[in-house]
Structure formats: structure tokens, C-alpha cells
Design a protein that fits this description.
By secondary structure, the protein is of the alpha+beta class. The protein has helices spanning about 5-15, 25-30, 35-45, 75-90, 95-110, 115-125, 140-150, 220-230, 245-250, 280-285, 300-315, and strands at about 20, 50-55, 60, 95, 135, 155-160, 165-175, 180-190, 195-200, 200-205, 235-245, 260-265, 270-275, 290-295. A five-stranded antiparallel β-sheet has the order 9-8-7-6-10. Strand 2 (about 50-55) and strand 3 form a beta hairpin. Helix 4 (about 75-90) crosses helix 6 (about 115-125). The longest helix has 17 residues, at about 300-315. The termini are far apart. The relative contact order is 0.06.
């Protein structure tokens, strides 16, 4: 059995990990009786921790107090927070850059030397690459995360990629960061289906709606589900290709948000991706530098034939210069989505 001081720290750590604990669960975790848990909860209250009793079955939750009590972090959690604060200080979440720097300074002041070296090593050996994504208000992220945790319906205005405005209500399930954008996965109550929303296109309305019983997620593999939702579903054309290379090789050529890869055998796989323009879709897949066959959409086959003929003509040795065509070219220009 843990000594009283160690047990209090363990109890506090448990209360910080879940929103609510039953007395029986806490007693089992600590290896003590329910009566001992009640006494320990009383000691925490005397130390200034706002531990509230929950209605119904005897239970406890850690509430918000007038002062922020000390947080108990293990080594990995401390490193994760430090790295996250450094990333936020770089502007990935708008409005908290300066606050992140102040919080990071306080955290690094008390980090043990071994953890400070881990944070510095990870940061110094990491090189940011790629285009910056859309900045998201930190208050929106925390409000959405709280609604996911507390199972409260969200009400919000939403702007689609083609700038159509609507009012939505959704049962939030998870926040997902693709590397460039934040997304909310939730059950749209008006459409009675799962939907994915870009958080930077979302404006929350208060107060939240009623609490709900969480549904089973739309897929056991949420990463794959989000990849499909982000990479193909929002676009006018959904392409399906057989790639003549192992799935892991194709995956090395593209980020997960650009398409979904499913193995066929050891030497080939299926790639599903999307675009608003057929030429853009054809050229992007061709530039992967992997042999492929196109299956969908049917009109893409004709465009690839036309493009291949044009490219083959451009390489004919000694070919006479062709007169510029006066007809409207099929190339629509850069995508604006």
C-alpha cells in the first residue's frame, strides 16, 4: 500500500486524467478502501484542490478553482508540452504566440536537466518543411476539445470551400490536425451523418447544445477515414488508380492528406485521391513517377490520352513548329480551391 503522501499524489494524478471517477474505481487503482479515498479527497480539499462529489453513484471530479493548482506530469508529458509550446510560439495557432513563450520559459525553468536536453535535442534536430497551414484561434480549439470531452452538442456557422454559408449542429467526436489544417470530426444532427469540418471555416455559437451519448466512430481506423474525407471527398472528381509499386513505396511519395492507399499485393496498391480539375489529377499522379492504371472517373481516361498525345508530340525530333491554335485550350489554369 502506498504511503499517505505518495497516495495523495497518485490520487491527484488520477483526478487530472479523467473528468469523473467513481469512488470504487479510485479505490481499486490505489489499492485502498472507499473510506480511505474519502479521507484522501478531504486532504486534497484542505490543500486547496477543488475536488467535487458527483451526483448519482458516489464519485469525484477535479473542478476549476480560484487558483491554478500544481499539475503532475510524467517525463513524456513534460517533453510533449514543452515541444508543443515551442511549436505554438512559432504561430501555428493564432493569438497565443506570446503566451506560449511565457509559459515555455516557466516550464523550462523547472524542467530537470535530462528533460531539458531531450526537448532541445528534438527541437534542434527538427526542420519544419512545407507550406504553413491556416491559423486557428486557440479559444476555438479549446472550446471544441471541451465539447468532445464533455459530450456536448456544438452549434456553429460554417463556410464550405465554395463559400456557401450555413448553420450546423454536430455531436463532436475528435479534433484532427493534418499538418496544415485543423479538422473536427462529428455527427451532423441535421444531416444525420458523419461530417468533417475545417475548424478555420467554423464560427462557434454559444451556449452549446444538449449533452449526448457518444456514437460508435464511423471507422475503427480514424486516421484512414480522415485521410479519405480530406483527400478525395471534398473534390469534384474522385480518382481511383492501381499503382504498380508496394503501398509503402507509394506512401513515401505523398502525405497522408493527399490520398488513401490500400495494398493489393506485395507489388501493387490502390490509390484514391481527388481534385477539382481532371488535368490536375492526371499530372499529379503522373509526377509520382510510378507506373499506374486509371479506373475512375471514366472521363479521366480521355484526358490522359489527350495529354499523352500532346506530350509525345512535344518530343518528336525535328518536328515542324505547329501554329498556335485559335481555339480555346483545354487547360483550365491553376486550381483555385
Amino acid at each position: 500500500m502506498l504511503e499517505t503522501s505518495a497516495r495523495l499524489l497518485r490520487l491527484l494524478s488520477l483526478l487530472q486524467t479523467h473528468r469523473e471517477w467513481s469512488g470504487v474505481e479510485l479505490a481499486e487503482r490505489l489499492g485502498v478502501t472507499a473510506r480511505t479515498v474519502r479521507r484522501d479527497v478531504g486532504r486534497l480539499r484542505e490543500l486547496g484542490y477543488p475536488v467535487h462529489a458527483t451526483a448519482g453513484a458516489p464519485g469525484y471530479r477535479l473542478g476549476a478553482g480560484t487558483d491554478l493548482p500544481p499539475l503532475l506530469l510524467d517525463d513524456d508529458e513534460a517533453v510533449a508540452i514543452a515541444v508543443g509550446l515551442r511549436t505554438a510560439a512559432g504561430g501555428s495557432v493564432s493569438g497565443i504566440e506570446e503566451t506560449s513563450v511565457r509559459a515555455l520559459a516557466k516550464l523550462e525553468r523547472v524542467l530537470p536537466s535530462r528533460l531539458r536536453h531531450r526537448v532541445h535535442a528534438l527541437q534542434s534536430m527538427t526542420v519544419p518543411m512545407g507550406r504553413p497551414g491556416s491559423a486557428v484561434d486557440a479559444a476555438s480549439l479549446t472550446a471544441i476539445a471541451a465539447a468532445c470531452r464533455d459530450h456536448e452538442t456544438l452549434r456553429f456557422g460554417y463556410r464550405t470551400h465554395d463559400r456557401q454559408e450555413s448553420v450546423r449542429a454536430a455531436e463532436p467526436y475528435r479534433l484532427v490536425h493534418s499538418g496544415r489544417h485543423w479538422y473536427l470530426l462529428g455527427w451532423d444532427t441535421g444531416r444525420a451523418d458523419w461530417r468533417t469540418y475545417r475548424v478555420d471555416r467554423l464560427s462557434l455559437r454559444t451556449p452549446n447544445g444538449p449533452r449526448f451519448v457518444p456514437r460508435d466512430p464511423p471507422d475503427s481506423d480514424l486516421a484512414a477515414y480522415m485521410s479519405r474525407s480530406i483527400s478525395s471527398a471534398p473534390y469534384r472528381y474522385q480518382g481511383r488508380f492501381t499503382m504498380h509499386a508496394p503501398a509503402e513505396v507509394v506512401a513515401e511519395h505523398m502525405p497522408a492528406t493527399m490520398g488513401t492507399i490500400e495494398p493489393i499485393d506485395e507489388r501493387s496498391c490502390t490509390l484514391s485521391t481527388g481534385a477539382n480539375d481532371l488535368d490536375e489529377l492526371a499530372v499529379w499522379v503522373a509526377l509520382l513517377d510510378i507506373d499506374f492504371e486509371v479506373h475512375e472517373p471514366p472521363e479521366l481516361v480521355g484526358r490522359i490520352r489527350a495529354l499523352s498525345t500532346r506530350l509525345a508530340g512535344a518530343t518528336r525530333a525535328g518536328a515542324e513548329p505547329r501554329r498556335p491554335s485559335t481555339s480555346t485550350p483545354p487547360w483550365p489554369g491553376p486550381s483555385t480551391c
